[in-house]
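re: that chain from earlier
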Amino acid sequence: MGTGMAARLLGAGFPLIVFNRNRERAAPLAKIGARVAGNAREAAAGAEIVIAMLADDAASRAVWLGDDGALAGAGAGTLLIESSTLSVAWVKELANLATARKSELLDAPVTGSRPQAAAGELNFLVGGSDAAVARARPALDVMGRQVIHLGPTGSGALVKLINNFVCGVQVAAIAEAIALIERTDLDRDKALAVLTHGAPGSPLVKTLSARMTARDYTPNFLLRLMAKDLAYAQREAQDRSLELTTAAAASEVFARAIEAGLSEKDFSAIVEPMRSK
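^ sequence. v structure.
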């Protein structure tokens, strides 16, 4: 995701310093004009805008905090944009830390996956001040097709978790439907077409059911990351005295897939343990 976003910025003429905890993954960006930093602090030093795209709260904390973290390198007035899918609690904590350093944070997670990142077709779900959104817009517009300002800090993070929990439930449901169809005498393609071309046929269901039937689990969105997002969404609901029962059920299905060794596959691979019974 981050590579595609960075390539879009470079293509639009933005001067760019990049840092990846796996230095080899930054090499393609160096070939097209990015300067590769040795750590997050070096990458943030002197930057007007710092953008992070990471896997989870732990990875985000590791990159932003500490002597070599991006916060240590960011100067007063720097705009920080956190595009990872994170817990609302950590986003708010990070925003407070940014304020203490006289910087400002936008939480701006995205919908879309690797192809949309490469094509500049992401949707940014943004929380933060109007002024910060206006300042970020030139960069966000290069990387995405839509910038949706949802409210104050944490709003983007919360809507992204709600979005992903609904996606996770849909994926679990279509995986179980395919597994059920395959255990019958039905013509799988005809039966599945009824679902994908009818009321259940969301864009996600259509895309992932095709991957499931082709058994092509080339990662577009890692299975373990969807499991993480479901857990974060459930935590947010629990904090508001609500139980997400469908998310809990989907989480169990994803947990079985992780136990089967599929965590680094595309999240459509959730169907495979159901087939092996």
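The chain has two domains: 2-149, 158-275.
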